[in-house]
């Protein structure tokens, strides 16, 4: 009887560990098809590439295993956040394209969450692929936080430095979706 109780407790613990990822994924999927305007909250000193520009995220494509979120800065439609589900982990990649749809030299960097996270936030430490692509980004940790009906935050912290970046998107006020990201017109 004791063995059955221990096995039941272990199964319950295993399902609890997967729940944060399930909830997080469901919160993202609930946004599918919608677009939201963002506000630059924090940026590294001297980096003004986002300041004064309209910032939009569009949860454009959702499947059971992958969610693609184009991130538009002004007229620049080169960026897409690609989230891929791997059991109780999520992988984040930054897909960067040129106007003609070809991949940028600096693309597909990111990382995989190191644990199941929480239902409202996931952290993605830079992986070896990122270090090979952007040497200075070897200590990056990206964050994506969802407060359903309120805010979606995308952020970056470079450990060991003062480099911090964050944009908050207002989930309470959907906007018209932007045009397709560069390269998507050809079905990419």
Explain the overall architecture.
Residues 1-18 form the signal peptide. Keywords: Signal. The chain has helices at 2-29, 128-133, and strands spanning 35-42, 55-58, 61-62, 66-73, 76-86, 89-96, 109-112, 121-125, 140-147, 151-158, 164-170. With 188 residues, it is α+β, with helices and mostly antiparallel strands. It has one domain (2-186): Lipocalin, CATH 2.40.128. Strand 4 and strand 5 form a beta hairpin.
Helices and strands in order:
Blueprint: H1 2-29, E1 35-42, E2 55-58, E3 61-62, E4 66-73, E5 76-86, E6 89-96, E7 109-112, E8 121-125, H2 128-133, E9 140-147, E10 151-158, E11 164-170
Antiparallel strand pairs: 1-2, 1-11, 2-4, 3-4, 4-5, 5-6, 6-7, 8-9, 9-10, 10-11
Signal peptide: 1-18
Keywords: Signal
Protein name: Secreted protein
Task: Give structural attributes.
eleven-stranded antiparallel beta sheet, alpha+beta, about 20% helix, Lipocalin, about 190 residues, Secreted protein, signal, single chain
Helical coverage, percent range? 10-25%
Overall shape: globular
CATH architecture: Beta Barrel
Radius of gyration, in Å, reads: 18 Å
Tell how many strands the DSSP assignment holds: 11
In short:
With 188 residues, this protein is of the alpha+beta class. It is built from two helices and eleven strands.
């Amino acid at each position: 009887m004791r063995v059955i109780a221990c096995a039941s407790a272990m199964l319950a613990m295993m399902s609890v560990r997967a729940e944060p990822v399930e909830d997080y994924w469901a919160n993202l999927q609930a946004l599918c098809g919608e677009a939201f305007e963002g506000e630059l909250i924090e940026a590294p000193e001297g980096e003004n590439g986002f300041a004064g520009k309209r910032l939009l995220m569009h949860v454009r494509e959702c499947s059971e295993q992958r969610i693609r979120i184009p991130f538009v800065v002004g007229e620049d439609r080169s960026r897409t956040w690609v989230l891929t589900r791997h059991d109780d982990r999520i992988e984040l990649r930054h897909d960067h394209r040129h106007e003609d749809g070809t991949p940028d030299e600096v693309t597909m960097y990111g990382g995989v969450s190191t644990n199941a996270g929480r239902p409202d936030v996931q952290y993605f430490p830079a992986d070896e692929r990122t270090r090979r692509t952007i040497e200075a980004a070897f200590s990056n940790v990206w964050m994506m936080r969802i407060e359903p009906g309120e805010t979606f935050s995308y952020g970056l912290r470079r450990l060991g430095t003062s480099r911090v970046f964050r944009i908050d998107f207002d989930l309470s006020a959907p906007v018209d979706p932007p045009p397709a990201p560069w390269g998507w017109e050809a079905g990419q």
